[in-house]
Amino acid sequence: MERLTFRFPATKILESQAHVGVVGSGDLEILMVPTDGDFAEVTIRTGTTGYKEIWKSVLERFFIQNAVSARIMINDFGATPGVVTLRLAQALEVANNAEYNKN
Predict the structure, then answer these.
(1) How far is it, in rounded angstroms, from Cα 15 to Cα 29?
(2) By CB neighbour count within 10 A (0-12 exposed, 13-18 middle, 19+ buried), where does 8 fall?
(3) 8 Å CB contact between 22 and 51
């Protein structure tokens, strides 16, 4: 099991928290919690070791477009970069959709 931590500058505030995905074969779970800082902190727990640079690249692309101030926890079970990107976008949409979060 590998644990990775990254920090990215942030300028946007999230509406609320989000929880998307499942920890299962080829997938991952993302928990996104708003913070009031000027950075985002991402912690990844993965059973697939040796992919730090790929994680960094995927996350950098996400934060270039979405500089959200949040604490993000990712529990990975071998997800591809495409699945990671999809789940991050999904978590952001859930966190920014206040109406969805009331249900």
Answers:
(1) 20
(2) buried
(3) no
Residue recorded with tokens 């109406």: 99
At 25-66, the pLDDT tens digits run 778 999 999 999 899 999 999 999 999 999 999 999 999 999
Domain of 21, CATH number, reads: 3.30.230
Q: How many domains does the chain have?
A: 1
Phi, psi for 3 (deg, rounded to 5)? -120, 125
Cα–Cα dist 18/29, whole Å: 10
Residue type, 84: V
Rounded distance, CA 84 to CA 82, Å?
5
- Give φ, ψ of 80 to 5 degrees: -80, 160
91, HSE (Cβ side, Cα atoms, 13 Å): 27
**pTM given for the model:** 0.90
